[in-house]
């Protein structure tokens, strides 16, 4: 995975060339004092044998840019002001064209500290402490020494039974002191993988490219225990399926004591809850689930021609099981009632909140689900031409979501996940728009209700060809303030009885019927109106559309989605 030493030309940002040092990012408003709890937002988290502290004050070590190239520069950092008794685990790297927004975890052996205070001399622990110095370092890569100030990349070589947690960088060829970093006992670690590409460069001086990636735990989700240190990995031809030479930490503390309690969850939502704006031309607005049931939604069973009314709480919906097609929900048969229900009811709309641990309980994910009784037809874009469909894309019921990721060290909003169509994306806090202090803005796309961070048109298809499905977003008078209009529907880590899950959440079947529209006739009518040279592009686009856009099947509820237990899809 990691290369032996090689060189590439460079220049350091402190030379005559322009270098913009990233400035630290702060949220628009101060973070409040959270309600009293146990371990949430205390600055430290106990992982079992290790205690970790989050460092956000970072010290610049070296920066890199390609001379005359288009690649954006990056800067490498080490943790600054490490508390007594804690040790560095690795260094951090980020691009220079964004605010300084990183962190590094430093660690101490909590068990050893406790035993020292108690006067214990456990021989096993003395021989196999949680943290140990590396034996020495391997020089992974270095820049060309003839091109100014240079960087040297060092992989700690851990003792047997230990793992390195990150790479070190120096601006001299002298090997770092072994005191600079600590390795972690193997049973206290988890495998990690490459995440975002930070730097990739090739040169005539090097036959192989040099790449720098951020890292994250290999296994993620509500029950995963991996904890990212905040470090990076570098080398040549890094393979996403290859096991890395560095690892993540593992939280062995089953109590997850850094997770927020119920009062703290409410405080977080009231402080960070986004305002969701719907398009000014939106015809199919959200509603609450009880409003949907009370105003005519019907439960159908396979083999029975008539549907039955659904109790406002969903108490007569079949619970559990799998999505076997035996039951589904549909709109009422009466045209007036059907059309009225499609429009939704903004006044009743609320966000349904699922709170869960992420990265071993060092982050809290607040997933916010919004329900719309109907998903409208799509608009296709072919070059400069936009074509509104009349059926394609329609389906009964639409569940969409976005997720707030909060640091459990401080209670600070760290990222927001937007469930854009055809794969979502995490956005850092500095990339967001805010309204009323630290509350982000979420834009819901016209008819499809996918969430996006900014107003505009997002193309689901080929942006290069300008061909795809339009997702149009804009501010309007149609909005829902999730900081006041929400219901917590699940927070499993709090234990039984703390949060009562609604009956409808246990409905694992489809919230809409399986319908096959005569989409071919609609498409043929459109194709006949187009110039011949454009028809091929449109036909290819339609072949690539997901089946749900043809209204062929209704969506399942939140608990049937992969991200209910797992991490978000990126």
Report on this model:
With 570 residues, the chain is mostly beta strands. It has 2 domains: 188 residues, no CATH class; 299 residues, no CATH class. The radius of gyration is 27 Å and the shape is globular.
Structural class: mainly beta
Q: Characterize the main sheet.
A: 6 strands, mixed
Total domain units: 2
Residue stretches low in confidence (pLDDT < 50, at least 5 long) are 1-18
Basic shape: globular
Number of strands: 35
Strand order of the largest sheet: 28-27-26-23-22-35
Spatial separation of the terminal alpha carbons: 24 Å
Radius of gyration: 27 Å
InterPro entries: Vps62
Protein name: Vacuolar protein sorting-associated protein 62
Pfam family, one: Vps62
SSE inventory with pairings:
Blueprint: E1 44-46, E2 50-55, E3 58-64, E4 74-79, E5 92-95, E6 104-109, H1 110-118, H2 123-127, E7 131-132, E8 136-142, E9 152-157, E10 162-163, E11 168-170, E12 183-185, E13 189-203, E14 206-217, E15 226-227, E16 232-235, E17 247-250, H3 262-272, E18 275-278, H4 289-294, E19 298-301, E20 308-309, E21 327-330, H5 335-342, E22 351-358, E23 363-375, E24 379-382, E25 385-388, E26 395-407, E27 413-418, E28 425-428, E29 434-435, E30 439-444, E31 451-452, E32 456-462, E33 467-473, E34 479-481, E35 486-490, H6 519-529, H7 532-544
Parallel strand pairs: 18-30, 22-35
Antiparallel strand pairs: 1-2, 2-6, 3-4, 4-5, 7-12, 8-9, 9-11, 10-12, 13-14, 13-17, 14-16, 15-17, 18-34, 19-20, 19-21, 22-23, 23-26, 24-25, 24-33, 26-27, 27-28, 29-30, 30-31, 32-33
């Amino acid at each position: 995975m990691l290369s032996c030493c090689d060189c590439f030309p460079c220049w350091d940002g402190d030379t005559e060339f322009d270098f913009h040092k990233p400035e630290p990012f702060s949220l628009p408003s101060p973070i409040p004092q959270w309600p009293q709890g146990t371990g949430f937002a205390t600055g430290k988290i106990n992982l079992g044998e290790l205690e970790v502290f989050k460092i956000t004050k970072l010290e610049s070590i070296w920066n890199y840019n390609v001379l005359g190239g288009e690649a954006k520069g990056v800067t490498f950092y080490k943790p600054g002001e490490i508390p007594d008794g804690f040790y560095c685990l690795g260094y951090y790297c980020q691009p220079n064209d964004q605010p300084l927004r990183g962190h590094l975890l430093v660690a101490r052996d909590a068990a050893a500290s406790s035993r020292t205070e108690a006067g214990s001399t456990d021989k096993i622990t003395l021989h196999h402490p949680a943290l140990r110095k590396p034996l020495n370092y391997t020089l992974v890569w270095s820049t060309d020494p003839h091109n100014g100030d240079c960087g040297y990349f060092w992989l700690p070589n851990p003792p047997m039974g230990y793992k390195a947690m990150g790479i070190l960088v120096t601006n001299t060829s002298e090997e770092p002191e072994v005191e600079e970093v600590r390795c972690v006992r193997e049973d206290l670690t988890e495998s990690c993988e490459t995440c975002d590409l930070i730097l990739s460069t090739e040169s005539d001086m090097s036959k192989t490219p040099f790449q720098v990636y951020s890292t994250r735990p290999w296994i993620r989700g509500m029950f995963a225990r991996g904890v990212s240190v905040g470090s990076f990995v570098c080398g040549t031809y890094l393979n996403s399926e290859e096991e890395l030479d560095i690892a993540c930490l593992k939280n062995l503390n089953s109590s997850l004591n850094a997770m927020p309690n119920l009062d703290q969850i409410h405080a977080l939502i009231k402080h960070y809850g986004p305002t969701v704006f719907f398009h000014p031309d939106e015809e199919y607005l959200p509603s609450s689930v009880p409003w949907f049931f009370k105003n005519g939604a019907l439960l159908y069973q396979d083999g029975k021609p008539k549907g039955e009314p659904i109790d406002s709480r969903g108490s007569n919906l079949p619970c559990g099981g799998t999505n076997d097609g035996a039951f589904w929900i549909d709109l009422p048969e009466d045209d007036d009632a059907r059309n009225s229900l499609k429009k939704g009811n903004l006044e009743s709309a609320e966000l349904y909140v699922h709170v869960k641990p992420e990265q071993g309980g060092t982050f809290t994910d607040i997933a916010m689900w919004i329900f719309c009784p109907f998903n409208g037809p799509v608009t296709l874009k072919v070059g400069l031409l936009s074509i509104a469909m009349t059926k394609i894309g329609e389906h009964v019921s639409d569940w969409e979501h976005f997720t707030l990721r909060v640091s459990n060290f401080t209670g600070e909003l760290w990222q927001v996940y937007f469930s854009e169509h055809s794969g979502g994306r995490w956005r850092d806090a500095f990339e967001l728009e805010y309204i009323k202090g630290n509350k982000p803005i979420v834009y819901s796309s016209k008819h499809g209700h996918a969430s996006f961070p900014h107003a505009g048109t997002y193309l689901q298809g080929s942006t290069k060809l300008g061909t795809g499905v339009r997702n149009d977003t804009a501010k309007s008078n149609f909005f829902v303030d999730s900081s006041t209009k929400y219901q917590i529907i699940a927070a499993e880590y709090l234990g039984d009885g703390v949060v009562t899950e609604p009956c409808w959440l246990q409905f694992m079947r489809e919230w809409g019927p399986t319908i096959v529209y005569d989409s071919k006739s609609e498409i043929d009518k459109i194709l006949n109106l187009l110039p011949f040279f454009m028809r091929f592009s449109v036909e290819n686009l339609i072949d690539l559309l997901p089946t749900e856009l043809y209204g062929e099947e209704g969506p399942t509820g939140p608990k049937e989605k992969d991200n209910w237990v797992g991490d978000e899809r990126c």
